[in-house]
């Protein structure tokens, strides 16, 4: 079936419409990720306060290693690159430790 100007225009509009719907879904997922990270940081803040109160070190390498292994498994089952998941978790852990160090310095 030959492509006409109407077919091309309709197809272009259809693709743009689908792209917009997909991008809206991506935006929703991004917002959910940010909200989940904010929720996670509420808990890690409390952990940091307890660590400061009892003079515990801001990082826990054994816990971090267990978390990395656990989240790599979850990533695999979710069909997400485990190396990417590990990089993301390292970023989060680094930020958590920074927060814990700041909490420990607070009088």
Automatic annotation (TrEMBL):
It comes from the Bacteria. It holds the Pfam family CM_2. This is Chorismate mutase. The keyword Zinc does not apply. GO terms for molecular function: chorismate mutase activity. One of its GO terms (biological process) is chorismate metabolic process. Keywords: Isomerase. Residues 13-104 form the Chorismate mutase domain.
């Amino acid at each position: 079936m030959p492509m006409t100007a109407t077919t091309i225009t309709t197809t272009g509009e259809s693709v743009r419409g689908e792209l917009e719907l997909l991008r809206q879904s991506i935006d929703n997922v991004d917002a959910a990720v940010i909200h989940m990270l904010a929720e996670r940081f509420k808990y890690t803040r409390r952990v940091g306060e307890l660590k400061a109160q009892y003079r515990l070190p801001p990082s826990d390498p054994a816990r971090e290693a267990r978390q990395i292994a656990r989240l790599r498994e979850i990533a695999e089952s979710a069909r997400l690159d485990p190396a990417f998941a590990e990089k993301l978790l390292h970023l989060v852990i680094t930020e958590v430790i920074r927060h814990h160090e700041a909490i420990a310095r607070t009088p």
